[in-house]
Every structure is written in C-alpha cells, then in structure tokens.
Design goal:
alpha/beta; Rossmann fold; SIR2/SIRT2 'Small Domain'; 2 domains; three-stranded antiparallel β-sheet; 8 helices; 11 strands; elongated; NAD; transferase; cytoplasm
Length: 228
C-alpha cells in the first residue's frame, strides 16, 4: 500500500463545532492565548488554565466526527494512512482512524506538571488539588506555546516517507508543524484542502483545493482511490 500521510488542523474540527483560535488576534474563546496556553499563563493562574481546558474537554463530549473525519478513516482500506494532527480532540479516533500522532497533545489526557512522562486518561475536569503519583498538580497533556514538541521527530519521519501528503484544515502558521511540508520527498504528491488557501508557502507543486474539509474530502475521495 502507498503511504498517505495527513496533516490535519483546527479547520477539520471546526466543522464539528469545535471553536478555533486565530493567531492574528491572539484570542482563544475571548482569552489571550498566552494566558491559557503557555507556561507563563500556568504559573500566573493555574485555576484559569484548568477551567479553560475543562470547558474544552466538556465540549468534545458533545460533538461528533464529521464526514471529513469519516472519509479519512475509510481511506485506510486503500492506503497506509498516517495522521499527524495539530488537534487535541479525539474526533479522528472516534471516526475510526487507527494511526494518529497528536503532536500538540491530547485533551483527554493529563500529566504531572513536574513530569510529562506521568500521563493519565482524563475524561472529566481537572481540579486544583488533583495530583499525579509524584505529588505534583495535574495539568492538561497539551503542548503549550513556548514548549518543546517532543513528537516532531516522529512526525518528520512520517512526512519523509509519504507517497501522498495531504494538508487539511490548517494554514501552517504554527511551527514547527508548519515545516513538515518541507520534509516530503521530491516525488511526493502534495494536496492542500483549505477554503481560504492562497497557495502561499506551498510552491507550484501543491494541488490546492479551496474547499471546506468535508466538501474537499468528498471531492477528493475517488481521485485518491485511483492513485492507490
């Protein structure tokens, strides 16, 4: 089977009702991003950060995978599909995809604030006083702005091995994830699905589809099957 590597971003989850933030205005659900998604914000107000992610966690219990998620899962019948997602929700998993790398962390997990290697399943709220086995406060298992992205090495290897590299629902403005398109092979087919995409940064090699994630995947499915 050919290797189909998919880099997914907030745009695909937005179609299920999960709100996104835009780097341009620096706000996420009316919060300054640095207040709720940075080590500085955690040091400043742990209660605010925990409640922010508690709300996000409650939200993903209320939404469902959309057709784009489901079509991506169906592609496993035809390709060796590997998903590199910037999203912290579990919609790819619930749609049926089986090979997913969450480079920015997972909302349904928590970890010790002193040791990110101590990881726990976390379906409910995290409260002040909830502790890991090392006695430290639990925090969301999320890669915040200013923190290292430990899975980038693995993501880079997946990008290098791809026969087809599909970018969906992301403007590739957040690094180091944005650099993955520069790791693909010269003969790798690069496809971009984004309704507002201008083609900037991809060069002439990219097949750009100015469509929503769901409509783009519906239009692309048969074409991809013919390439399998």
């Amino acid at each position: 089977m050919k290797k189909l590597t998919i880099l997914s971003g907030a745009g695909i989850s937005a179609e299920s009702g999960i709100k996104t933030f835009r780097d341009g205005d620096g706000l996420w659900e009316n919060h300054n991003v640095t207040d709720v998604a940075s080590p500085e914000g955690w040091r400043k107000d742990r209660e605010l950060v925990l409640e922010f992610y508690n709300q996000r966690r409650r939200q993903i219990h209320e939404v469902e995978p959309n057709d784009a998620h489901k079509i991506i899962a169906d592609l496993e019948k035809y390709f060796e599909v590997e998903i590199i997602t910037q999203n912290i929700d579990d919609l790819h998993e619930r749609a049926g995809s089986t090979n997913i790398l969450h480079i920015h962390g997972e909302l349904l997990k928590s970890c010790s604030c002193n040791n990110k290697g101590l990881i726990y399943e976390q379906k409910e709220d995290i409260k002040i006083g909830d502790k890991a086995e090392d006695g430290a406060q639990l925090r969301p298992f999320i890669v915040w702005f200013g923190e290292d992205v430990p899975l980038m090495k693995e993501a880079t290897e997946k990008a290098k091995q791809a026969d087809i590299f599909l970018v969906i629902g992301t403007f590739l403005q957040v690094y180091p994830a944005a650099g993955l398109i520069h790791e693909i092979k010269d003969d790798c087919l690069l496809i971009v699905i984004n309704p507002n995409e201008t083609g900037f940064g991809y060069g002439q090699r990219a097949v750009v589809m100015k469509e929503t994630a769901t409509r783009g995947m519906k239009l692309l499915f048969d074409k991809l099957i013919n390439l399998a």
